Amino acid sequence: MSALADRIRADLRAAADPLRAPGQQAYMKSEMPFYGVAKPEGQRIVRAAAKGTTDAAVLRATAVELWDAASHREERYAAMQLLGFRPLRADPAVIGIVEHMVRTGRWWDITDDLAHRLAEALDARPEQTSALVRDWSVDDDFWIRRIAILSQLGRRDRLDPVLLADAIEPNTGDREFFIRKAIGWALREHARVAPEWVRDFVAGHELSPLSVREALKHL
Question: Residue 146 and residue 128: Cα distance in Å, rounded?
Fold first, then answer.
């Protein structure tokens, strides 16, 4: 086990709040227990433990170790946080780790957080990552399809509307709640910078009422 992973685990255990933990677990409907560490405190712990670590390989390995050996959900949150650190933002090896986390984590808090890593990859390697997003948009695993749909969150005027449409269109008939919600969320976010594009997209596609309601929420 790596020293960085050991320190993060130890610091999370030291910050545990047994009174908070059951409520967190119930809210997230998680089989894995929580330590009861509030999100800001958990993030502070990870930043402090990893301060000065610039070796991308160490950060990657620690993230995978924390994820695969996690006994509590905050260890998985810590693993995801490490993937967003600056030395890994242009690292193509992160995408394989993201895929592993989404396929094994299988819940919205994991998928939605990791979508930001795809957005960073689209900035760093647009052609390769766009091809990946299109492949993931038709994957058998709906969590992989969800992250494809949400892959441009936060990109604002850098968002590629053709890629957004390509990620959404194969999924418009899906009845899965988390897919319908993701479609609406992705469109709602893009409506902040391109409201007419979103109105036209909604008008031109047979979307679920939930997707439409979310997409047009602020229009």
Answer: 19
Report the distance separating Cα 91 and Cα 104, nearest Å: 21
Looking at residue 109, its amino acid is D
**Exposed (0-12), middle (13-18) or buried (19+): which is 140, by Cβ within 10 Å?**
exposed
What b/e readout covers 112-128, taking b as 16+ CB neighbours within 10 angstroms?
bbbbbbbbbbbeeeeee
User: In this structure, are residues 187 and 215 in contact, taking their beta carbons and an 8 Å threshold?
Assistant: yes
pLDDT in tens, 39-67: 999 999 999 999 999 999 999 999 999 99
Cα 179 vs. chain centroid, distance in angstroms? Answer: 14
pTM above 0.85, yes or no: yes
Task: Write the pLDDT tens digit of every residue in 73-131.
Answer: 999 999 999 999 999 988 999 999 999 999 999 999 999 999 999 999 999 999 999 99
The structure tokens listed for 6 are 């050991």
For residue 124, the one-letter residue type is A
Under 8 Å between Cβ of 183 and 149:
yes
